[in-house]
Amino acid sequence: MFFLPIFEKKIKTLKVHIELKVGEILKVKVKVGDYRLGFEDDFLETVGLGSCVGVAIFDKKNKIAGLAHIMLPDSTNFSCKNKLKFADYCLEKMIEDIKGYGGDVGEFRAKICGGSNMFNVDSKSTIGTRNLEAVKNILRKYKITVVATDVGGCISRTMTVSVLTNEVLIRNKDNIKKI
Amino acid sequence: MEYNEQGLEILNEINNIASSNAATALSLFLNKDIEVLLSDLKIKPIEEICSSLGEEEEIFNSVMVQIDGSIMGNVLFVVKDSDFDTILWNIVSMYSMEIDNVDGSAELKDATFKEIGNILSNSYVSAIGKLLYLDEIRTSVPYSAKDMLSAIITSSYANAEIGEDYVIDMNCILKEDASVCGIGLYFIVSANSLEFLVERMDELIQ
């Protein structure tokens, strides 16, 4: 499991859904309520983060990154099959997965995006803020430092992650920014 | 979340009646014929819902109304941004107004759109209430958003806090008579609420 050769890691990446068009860079698509790992020069992308939260976790030393698309904060009261949509279950699984490649969790860094109040619902505790709170609690538990965020507001975001540079490109309907 | 044939038939029937009621309300409001295109009720993963309407990052206008009481969930009304002005034009033309010449037209457009969503959602929910003799159904004020389709659908789903693996797509498309205006109306409710609706209808039939 430890120190897999690069080509083996690549095969793992290629098993997931990949969207490739002429002239575009190779991106591993992360679906709603799911997570994926990327290696070396991979790009990971998740589309349409509204109240959902996108969490990118980087292991810079081993050139590995994970990207999760979280929909809901807590799986406790739900008995559904796909628990990856919940922050508690998904992030713990993704962190353990990255750790499996020999990284030191204390060295991991995270970037967070999303958690907006899409419909401008008049409430102090919207689903977006609760998602963000749940994500931060889990990262705190693992002592993973959050180095950059682009959260809140009433806007949706698409998040593209570069495993190599640890940069995150955020696209919304009005502009593009890098964190 | 599995339903037998009879359960699905009941849900289909409830959806047909409620959608027709919503279409009639919109038709009266616009003073035009509205065609209701009803697809078979489908149980599908959340990520597949938006693919029936457009691209994930396509910009849509939407109105969400939250439902509380006997059933819990949301009614979501979505319109492609490219069709948005046509629909609004149909309404304001009834009142001999030129929307682009009105000061603060963005606010006026938003308010008008919210009102259409409100009428559709409330007529949809009230049809279910009347059909099943449910007194305890409350609806929220309408909330609007203009953004990427997938974010609108997933945020509305997350707001309902359903948590199921699959949601029931009671999708219907309301099509205007002359111009091609695709309007989507979604009923996003928990499995418990849907089971309650089936049981209630079953009781009434017997």
Structure description:
The complex is a heterodimer of chains A (179) and B (206). Chain A has 179 residues and is an alpha+beta fold. In chain A, 21% of the residues lie in helices and 32% in strands. Chain A contains 3 helices and 11 strands; from the N terminus they run H-E-E-E-E-E-E-H-E-H-E-E-E-E. Chain A has helices at residues 6-14, 87-99, 127-141; strands at 18-19, 27-29, 34-39, 43-49, 53-59, 64-70, 109-114, 145-151, 157-162, 168-171, 176-178. In chain A, strand 1 and strand 2 form a beta hairpin. The longest helix of chain A is centred in the last third of the chain and has 15 residues, at 127-141. The radius of gyration of chain A is 16 Å and the shape is globular. Chain B has 6 helices and 9 strands; from the N terminus they run αββαββααββαβββα. By secondary structure, chain B is of the alpha+beta class. Chain B has helices at residues 5-30, 46-49, 81-94, 105-131, 149-160, 191-205, and strands at residues 34-38, 42-45, 59-69, 73-80, 137-139, 143-148, 166-169, 172-176, 182-189. In chain B, strands 1, 3, 4, 5, 6, 8 and 9 form a 7-stranded antiparallel β-sheet that branches. The mean pLDDT of chain B is 75. In chain B, helix 1 packs across helix 4 (105-131) and helix 1 crosses helix 6 (191-205). In chain B, a hairpin with a 3-residue loop joins strand 3 and strand 4 (73-80). The longest helix of chain B is centred in the middle third of the chain and has 27 residues, at 105-131. Classes of the chains: A alpha+beta (179), B alpha+beta (206).
